[in-house]
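Lab meeting, action items carried over

1. Structure of the two-component assembly. Owner: GW. Status: complete.
Input record:
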Amino acid sequence: MPTHDQLKTILIIEDDLDLRELMASLLELDGYHVERAADGSEGLDIAARVLPDVVLLDMRMPVMDGRRFAEAFRQRYGRKRPIVVVTAAADAGERAKEIQADAFVAKPFDVDELIHVVESFAPTHRRN
Amino acid sequence: MDRQNPVRRILLLTLSLDIPLTVLTVAALVRLLRVGSPDSTELVALTGIFYPARTVLFIGMVARALGPFVRWEGSSGRHAPSLEAAHAAVARAPLLLSVVFSILWGLSIIGALVILEVLNEGVLIENYVLPAVALFLLAVLLGSFSGAYVVHSWTLSSEVARVSAAAGKRCGSLAGSDLSWRGRLVILLYVAILTPSAWIGSFGYLAEMRSMVRSASRRAEAVARVVAQQVTMDQPGAGPEMILRRYHSEKVTPFIASSDGEVLLAATDGARFDPRVDPLLREKAAGRARGSWFDQKDLRVVAFERTAQADLAVVAVDVKHPAAGEFASASLVFGVVVLLWGLLVTHFLSTQLSQQIKRVSDVVGAVGRAETPRGAPRVPLYDHHEMGSLAESINRMLDRLERSEEAALEMERFKDEFIRMAAHELKTPVTIVKGYAQLLQSPANESAREHSVTAILRGTERMSHIVSELVDICRIRAGRYVIRSERINLNELVSEVASHAARQSGRTIRMLQGEHATVEGDRTRLAEVCAVIIDNAITYSPPEATVEVDVVRVGEQAVLSVEDHGIGIPLEKRPLILEPFRRAHADTPHDRGGVGVALYLSRLIVERHGGRIWFESEEGRGTKFHVALPAAKEDFNHANTRSAQDNIDHRG
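Predicted assembly:
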């Protein structure tokens, strides 16, 4: 089993506590290291500490929303780290394109769908 | 008189228009019965007999033209009259009416003349009948044109006014007005001048001719008698030549003939007539002592008087008197001019009316063909009488149609927004429930079981909250929202809600020392309203800021105020805050989510209680919401008495 340092890090930025915890649980079960943030600015703080392999980003949040986070994140870390937008907006694809996200997951999503997208960007060795 | 029956109104109108004829006919009949048959009385009397037939036909025609309106009346106003049919009727009616009018009158005058010819044994002679009939027909034709226009305009304008009033009832305008004063003046002038002049112009001519023939006959008979007497008396120094010369003049030509009709002696100097006596003399004079007749061929009256010598003293009188001709042509010109004038004016009046109908029907037609009443043209207004009011009514109706179309579209937008927002807001809890449920399926996740179940329950709680909010909106919009009524101590209610909100949020809510207020209403609903504005104040202000709640009395109202020191509401969003699906901070960093119906629902609830909800806000400084509700009756006594209670802070 890989050590903590070898695990891929996923940053979840989502203001809804239950949803954030759900995604975290799913990804942790799948063998990722998960960092949690309730809004964009918190997300930036965490990214400064642990650069995530994938960012799961909600669009509508208090304090700093998804759009502003994506701008700041791109500015600091370029395009190397993919951003996956998780949104309930009807035009999820459009929203994702607007902020140059790498992929999007529309709510309500399937557990497998979320895992599949994250794995496509950050393949994990641990697979049961 | 029943004003609602157009046919009856037409009857009255027709009679009033032909009052001179009616009076003349009655007078002529009376005179005919009492005096016999002097001059033109028989003619008037006889033609007047045709009057009822003409009136009946006329009413039938107008009633037919008014068919669309009459039918509308009959169907209890449920269907508007076809304006296109009305326009066609208006355009066609005067011509049809005039033609029928003329034909009928022509037949009546010819009929009358034929009867007279029979009665008077040829006293009325064809020389005068033809011009008189022609003149009469012309007068009737022109007169009936204008008459038809007038009657039609008048009746139609009342119908139009009624249609307008009925349309007005549906679209909330005032009732339309009747005929304009100009229209009335035209009709009055028509009655005062046109009808008598038509009669003077036609019957006058004929009557004058006939009276001249009669007076000429009498004169000729008198002269013939005198000549015959003097010739018979054989006065000394006054031979037949002298006598004849004495009575000879430009108009009178005396002569003596034998009973065979041969002229024996004539005063020929300057005479217009050949002294040859018509061969009719023998026929006319056979077996008679005296007599006279009208010579159609030479336009003269010939009178004779048989003398003792069996010779005839005959006098021929020229009836082509210049004065008679002048009178005839003057009355002809007068009649024609007046009739033409009447025709023009009434035609103008009627055309105006008909054109307005056309304008209205064009607009209505355009609206009927268009898919939506929005952007429909309006009827141009030129006049506030007659069609003017109909046009206004129709315009108002179109305005209203447009508004209702707008309202329907608004409702459509509301529904779209409703579905969109509901779907959007349900997505997150559905994701949560679905995700945790899938997580529970995985046996590897036994440890997170309790947490998952809790999260699922919270998710379903959120969903049911959204659903009940949406159901409430549907219900209140459909008017099925039940508001129970009970007496509520508003201070207590607000205090309960505030302390609950403080516990939930961990925030400080300060109850200011308020005034005692009791209201009547639905406790649960009002508590919801109270909770919504307190929640909003908490949500949109910093965690350390205090929310202040107050209840005061303003006149007969109890006013609840909730003030926060939060982010405030952007100016441009303020008008929309109390509308459904509007959130001041939607898609901004301040967005706290939600369907955006809570305040709208609160507004509906407060309005159902006869109250009002409003707010003051300053961006960056905070917002103050007010809810005013009618205070319960007995509370008035306590008005403006502040309770002694101090400010109470509810702390979380």
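2. GW to write a short summary for the group page. Key points so far: Chain A touches chain B through 27 residues (CB under 8 Å). Strands of chain A lie at 9-13, 33-37, 54-58, 83-87, 103-106.
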